[in-house]
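Chain X:
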Amino acid sequence: MAAWAQRDITDSLYGLTWGSGSSNAAFIGGGQAGFNYQFGGFVLGVEGDFDWAANSHNSASVVVPAVGTGDLIQITSNNRWIGTLAARFGVAFNNVLLYGKAGGGWVGNNGFTVADLTTGTSITGFNNNTRSGWLAGAGIEWAFARNWTVKFEYDYLGLGSRTIVVPVGAPFLLGDTFTLGRDVQEAKVGINYLFNWGAGPGPY
């Protein structure tokens, strides 16, 4: 599975954008649990999942001429985990389910750091934090055996933006503010085991 963090970062003082390194993809892996109820060709349910993100190199650099003699400024921010909880609704035919999802999501981030690579100084905007927002997604699931399915799914987490002000006494970029776009996209492949309590000969 993979996730993309759409975190273009802009500053107010110099009008610069850090974007090339803030939309990189990362491998994610975890588990899910949920409940589905099928009536006729329709399926309703609820599903939650939790994934760890192998995201440790999400940084981008840009030269800021107004700082010193043209210092190289680097911004680093990494997502460490992603959790979602959503309602699921779909239409089944044969052994295939086409479905949509709507709910909420949470993303754990290990911090936001601005570093002057020329002088070796840095500013920490925030340490570990959790952000929440809305979730929308869609997917297809195939029941290849009585209790087993495989699914392919796309999710979009809308987390909004956050503004970070450079604190008083910082070694550089005094008076600057940074705005972070923080939305996340996920592409998932999953294997599910269905208990099928009270079910007929198989799923869907």
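Chain Y:
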Amino acid sequence: MNDQVVVVIPAYNEAHTIVEVVRGLKLKGFDRIVVVDDGSSDQTGEFVRQQGVVLISHLVNRGVGGALGTGINAALRFSPKVIVTFDADGQHDPDDVPRLIEPIEKGEADMVNGSRLLNPEGMPWYRQVANRIANLVTYVLFGVWTTDSQSGLRAFSRDAATRLQFMSSGMGANSEILAEIVRNNLRFKEVPVKAIYTSYSLSKGQSLDVGLRTMVKLILVKVRRLGL
């Protein structure tokens, strides 16, 4: 089914890892790849251009949500059966992608979330705590429970992807995507995935300050969704 899958990779200043990430996916047979260079100031776009995949460049940094929106819309033009989102920092294992695709292929789910916390081996304790707090906030605001609301590894059926509408441009989009699953009455499933942590990938994670600002933005999104 790999030729019916498009992988979307949002990337911001990921010249250190992006080539390895793209090549790793290709080695597993995932050749249909869309990379969104989200206004990088390094050589991310230049390196991607040499890999023979689709490259879309934002002139300015729009955040994860903006990059995902651009990438998913571009992927839909290929009329795939499944769209997979995949982080550019090297923390995801390409071997996990088929595990996310399978429930959609079998008609068991419309969206599959790759959860690092179903098997958190190797995840620093402070990351586990931060993720669990984010999970609780997501549940309180949007009414959807997940063990890993901030996972960047997900799979969507084409129909589910066409229904996604999120307001957040930054990291809050991760939680808002889950809210869209509830709003559209889509079938949701989680599968365990491996997280590959390096000093580089850990440096790309959310700081406390970013986490707090993301929480405030999610509250504002909730207010706008309620029309207040």
